[in-house]
Amino acid sequence: MNQRALTLLLVLSPLAAACGSGTAAFGPAKEVPATKRPTIWDASARTRLMAQDARSMGQGGANQVGGEQAKAGWTGDTPSGWRSVPANPARFRDAIWQIEGAADADCYLTAAVGGGTRQNMARWYSQQFDQAVPEADTLPEVALGGRTGRLAEIRGTFLGKAGWAALIAFVADGDQVMSLKFTAPEAVVVANREKFLALAKSLRQGGAAAASGAGGADSGNRVWTTNLPAGWEALPANPARFRDAVWRVANEPDTDCYLSAAVGGGVPMNLSRWYEQQFGQPVPSPESLAVVELAGRPARLAEIKGTFQGKPGWAALIAYAAKGEQVMSLKFTGPEAVVDGNREKFLALAASLRPATASPDPKAPPIERGQPLPSSHPDIGTAHGAAPAATGPFAATVPAGWTPKAGSPRLLHHTFGNGGEVYVNQLGGTVRGSLDIWRAELALPPITDAEFAALPKADFLGSDATLLELRGTHQGGAPGKKIEDAGLLVAVRVDDGTVTFCKMFGPAAEVADHKAAFVSFCASLRRNP
Amino acid sequence: MSTSSAVATATPRSVAALVVDGLGSMRLTVWLLVLLALLTWLGTLAQIDSSTYDVQREYFESWFVLAKLPLSVWGNAIGDTPEGSGFPLRFPLPGAYPVMGLLFVNLVVGGMLRLRWSGRNAGVLITHVGMLLLLLAGFVKLETGYSGMLGLYERGGAGGDRVHESSTFVSFHDYELALLTDKGDTIVERVVPAVDLQAAHGSGSVTLAPEGLPFKVQVHHWIDHSQVVTKGAETPATPVVGGLYLDQRSWRPGEQPKKESEIAGCYVSVFGDGGERFDAILWGYPRAPENRSNYVAAFTIKGQRYALDLRRTTYDLPFAVRLDKFEKKDHPGTMSPRDFRSHVTVTEQGQSTEAQIFMNNPLRRAGFVLYQASWGQQPMGGPPYYTVLEVANNPSDAWPEYACYIIALGLLWHFGAKLLRFLNSSTRTSLLRHDA
Prior knowledge:
The complex is a heterodimer of chains A (529) and B (436). Chain A is an alpha+beta fold.
């Protein structure tokens, strides 16, 4: 009987709590010194509650996917004496400018990065200039891309360089911060302050999409093939936007189907992006979704209908499978009727998806993006009806003993020996600034003028490049991996307005053994037509 | 055997005797120890997917648990689900709380009451006392102890409003509603624990009438895991105050809910005796150690400034702790920490003492124990670092140590006595004679 009463009480108590009302009492009054309870009595509700806009919710930190819409296509009126260079969204540089005659100057727009105002200000002030972080409300207002933001003006020692300054115009949407940052020697910053403010004011969306640099984080470098459904057509891939293979229904230009071989954020973040951000719908439990096949793996199928990014009557089919935080997804969007009519073809496409191999054997190693196809390989873009061979912007002759590194966002990424790596990549900024970054990886101070002038040259992308050779304790590279006695070799030059480099690092002895191979690899590097 | 004696043997024993026999049986002891081992193993495995706190509550502080066993062969999960994990086997078990309670009873009945009290059994009895004390220590800690965290930034450098020194710590999980009265140099605070505000969930409300103050406080629309949202085109289910509303923050699909990560929120309405009204949203996001200040919802009635604050349950220490330096050393060739420790200065009544807190080296002071719990760096990595110390107040803190001494004494006594008995026994004498 008692057990029954207890069970009844347990069952009913949440119900009572859900709809009832009651009373409670504060405990006894306790007087404490005001210094023991530092209290902000007059903060606005928005500051007190760290309010965020609904549209920014669900977006994650700086390195999470989901900000593509915010990042796409920013332009501004480039001031006289300045020039626009290709963007590098993979490094949160959605538009980049340089100043003629001031090689060290660096100005770039980050359209959306997580962390909120506090963390970003802490990074700028505390980490980069080692200064106290002021309250954002105390900073002067500034026009930034049609909105009113705040202007951080910092002078001092910037990442070890004395006499530098930064102008940073920023505005926050909840956790997401948009910023235009300009760093240079103080005299350059002072001389260009008005131009910077004019550029900040003129920023707008709607220009050409940001030029692609390196692929996105873990965007997957494999070349994918599939059995193209009848009535579908393949389009060029765009790995920098996480589109590792792209298709659409022929004669239906509104349809869009693409494979993202690997994006971060895990299933929760990606489901949130598809359902909440793109369709404004609640996220279902993954277990409630149908199981389908995607590239030989069991996957879930998200079927969403509604208003897609402001377009009513649209639908999406998304087959996805996860390995830890990395999610592979095949996404098909379009008018609802078209999507419904192509559902079976989409599922067949998903099931037939597979990495292209250099031999007829399906178990052969997959072809990596940037790796030249063997001459005997059939044209995967036509003969198999697959996506065009998107081999990246560069090709090179790979020396013996180097192994392609799968799943790397970098270009022509290979490993060698016991822990050695070599890859090609692009950066914003300047050659000298990049050299300092690599020196910092080995805990070395910025390069001096004399050292810079004395650096040797190497043949790289059909022209002379600066060759940097260092030895020390390497703390960069693979996460969690530190190499005590490391060697570092970098060939770097500005190519088509972007700092382009080939970097080799690993145990010092192995790097020394592969130096000749590195030099010949660099010499063979060429742009794909 | 005579007929009468056979009848006497078959006479059923009383229920009480059967219960005592059952509770004190060695078979029950073995079952309970097996259950404890099983719970420990499964509870450890469960921490792969759940937080330590959740597992502790689910497996060790509960009466019942639906245990989960991930199936795998040589580390490979059986069943490749789209979420990247295998299918677990689920089965019910009693929680560790009743198992240990029953073990306590079993030890008392079987090891103390039923055991013959004699010099021969003294060692066993002493050992049982030690084990009982060990179990009792766990019970006292669970029922009366409390703990929380103290986050501190390294002293010096750019810091803004960061916390470098503090004499308060906050609960890992529990919230409280604080009513503050501004008295200039002092603050008068009255608190009510969140557990007393359960009726404010959903459409319910809880009304509080602070004694001697000219208003009542109504708490409503309490959400255990919440976020504050700027009102847009949507129609929220909760009231909009100043263009903002409180929304349920859902755990993302596949994400394990973690009690310690919940951020409680609620609405408060203050009704003054003179007809004044003040409405606000309260949100319990912990700002420390990034920010030492409490951002409160203030209101003024009859010229006196008051404020309401939803915060993690806050405890005061009789001393202040300052972080002078945080030290982290990595395993050679990796970036995984080998050792991390906090160099702190403790100040009590004007007297300062330096100390180091690191793994297995907590700081004990004035009834509190400060453990090195966690640490953090800047969002992009690197200094300045902060440390997170767990502060525990546990009346039975030293009991396990005493229990170990008692158990050691009991075992020494028991085995020593056995040895002595053997040395003086005729068996030994005959063995020696045989060897000779």
